[in-house]
Amino acid sequence: MRSFLFVPADGGPKLDKAMASGADAVIIDLEDSITPERKPQARAAALEFLKSAGAAQQRPRLLVRINGLDTGMTDADLDAIIAGKPDAVVFPKAEGGASVLHLDAKLTAREAIAGIPEGQIKILAQAVESAAGLFSAGNFRNASPRLIGLTWGPEDLSAELGAETNRDASGELTEPYRLARSVCLYAAAAAKLPAIETVYVDFRNSDGLRRDTEASRRDGFTGRLAIHPAQVPVINDVFTPTTAQIEKAKSVVAAFAAQPGAGAVGIDGKMYDRPHLVRAQQLLDRVKR
Q1: CA quadruple 2, 19, 201, 70: dihedral positive or negative?
Q2: pTM score of the predicted model
Q3: Rounded to the nearest 5°, which phi and psi values hold at 9?
Q4: Domain containing 140: what range?
């Protein structure tokens, strides 16, 4: 999945617009965009939307961002939405593999009650949204077969740190948040999971979004969170491999297949070694998915 579009669970028409946005996944948000007094109504709206939208034959993935384990609201969220059979839940402030295992157990119990096959509902973990999350990010590997990716969040992290901002005057991440972003990338690689880039909050700045997203793809992220439908086409475009990239990857794979056991191969006067083969195979796998 390339694009993940957030929309408030009680967004009404915004939910329908999100479904038509072209996003690979729509995240129905029960967390930050919903004030405490609106949570009950938002849960009911989320369930209703899941049931209606989930019946469509052609649709994006439907995810629900629940409230974190430290809020005391996780159980109420899950009790409300599981009957709607979301494809996954977005897990905010996930703090290592133990927290994912905790959420896995909650999902397993509710799937059994609802008659849903165990493990059907996946987890996208917001793994670096707190200082504790940063220090525990290296142990997600094999935490749960439900895990489909890791992402991060500078907004909650900067609030915890008491920072004035997480970006400088030019819009670039400041040092503490560049570190957090890198930790997310390494954590995802260690867990053998896709790394999903965080939101770009200046949603009217499409040029800035494109530059920032191209840097994300360059560094190893495979998709991005979005906060406005207008961001979706840019994100999809950047994370869709070009024909030239696909053909190059095929040529690398073919060259190594023609020389079994070779540590490096030559293509058009350039040498490619085994890490190039791995990257080529990863790109072709993404194309298939």
Answers
A1: negative
A2: 0.90
A3: -60, -30
A4: 3-239
